[in-house]
Specification:
The structure holds two protein chains of two kinds. Chain A is of the alpha/beta class. Helices cover 24% and strands 26% of the residues of chain A. In chain A, strands 2-3-4-5-7 form a five-stranded mixed barrel. In chain B, helix 1 runs parallel beside helix 4 and helix 2 packs antiparallel against helix 3. The chains are: A alpha/beta, B alpha/beta.
Chain lengths: 196, 279
Amino acid sequence: MGTPQEGTARKVKMEIRRIKAPLEVPVIEELKAGDKVLLSGYIYTARDAAHKRFVDALEGGGTLPFDIVNQVIYYCGPSPALPGKVIGAAGPTTSSRMDAYAPRLIALGLKGMIGKGKRSQAVKDAMRRHKAIYFGATGGAGALLSKSIVSSEPVAYGDMGPEAVIRLGVQDMPLFVINDIYGNDLYEAGTGRYKR
Amino acid sequence: MKEVHVDEIISALEELFIDANYNLSGNVCDVLEKAIGREESPVGKEVIRELITNANIARDEHIPICQDTGLAVTFVEVGQDVHITGGALADAVNEGVRRGYQNGYLRKSACHPFTRKNTGDNTPAILHSKIVPGDAIKITVLPKGGGSENYGEVRMLVPSQGKEGVRSFVLDMVTKGGPNPCPPIIVGVGIGGNLETSALLSKEALMEPVGKRSDNPEEAAIEEELLDAINRTGIGPQGYGGTVTALDVHVKVMPCHIASLPVAVNIQCHAHRIKETVL
């Protein structure tokens, strides 16, 4: 890329950082809203139906289907993989549907969320309090994003079809930081900058 | 009288839904290319470039454009001089959808509203059929994602609100959606008719070619005004800020009740998937 950013960061080249999942707090502390990152490592898919089951399990005294500490959840329900392929199209779904459940998972150690769209104040507050971060993947770029997915294995809730929880191995997944732990919000800042 | 067997309809539906989900329709890529020039934000430009790359990968490597391959919105115009043989039209449409989503490795996104149990085959199709003159069957498919559909609404305005009421309703919906419906968006606006007709008009408006103004001067003027206003909101590609929030706005106006001013807004994402065929 190397294109200059607008506004306060105008003179700074847009740097692309490579980061690893699971996430570590020192890395999260360095990320700012608007940063472009390439994420590699392992992440878990879960949409709202899976989140409801997570919370139902916790309320019933049960456990989550994976250890959530330092993990990243991708709000994604991929299309079926063609024969010989790892996965089908795999872009983000709208994150706000997970807002009712996210603070609880963040309190349990969830460190990153990948999706699209604005988060509730409760989620943003939980992110600041527990040092978690929210990334945007480009909505509707499901073919492009699938190219960064190198492995896929079912974890839980296979009965839910496209809403099952899957563990994905990712390599250089292109993301933007939307909400950092300092209260910055790319949507608010970006929209404000170009409003006429 | 011309006869068309349902097997032809089934095959057409299967092929159309697969084609629509892998090959971005007609001129959308050209419209995106031009939008790069109009976009002032570097991040916005980069997002639009990603969308063009995405469409190329989808076509060349056979991966759906978006994982949300939509509810199967289907418009069928049946010529009144055609006799459909071998079964019912609605059954044929559903069978075509079933085969397309299964054989095309498309995501099945239809579920029960409360239990959320997936129907398993993306049926029922959302079928709109119309009897028209002639002896042909025209089928248009518009697989429609949930993220953009969620930011549509019908509002019964008070007649005195007039054009200004329409404008503020549309801007309200676009602003409320912000990044969620995957901008740059396409906006369909149905004005007039009644509750359900305005909604249908707004969907039909989305079927107009992107970048083409209405032939009706009144509709064209509203389209231009709304497109300009939407692109001043600052939302931009993906909501990251920018000057290309909408690729286009289409407006359809028809008469309504003397007591009413129904207006419907239907938002479409940049992955504007639409294909048609004539049997």
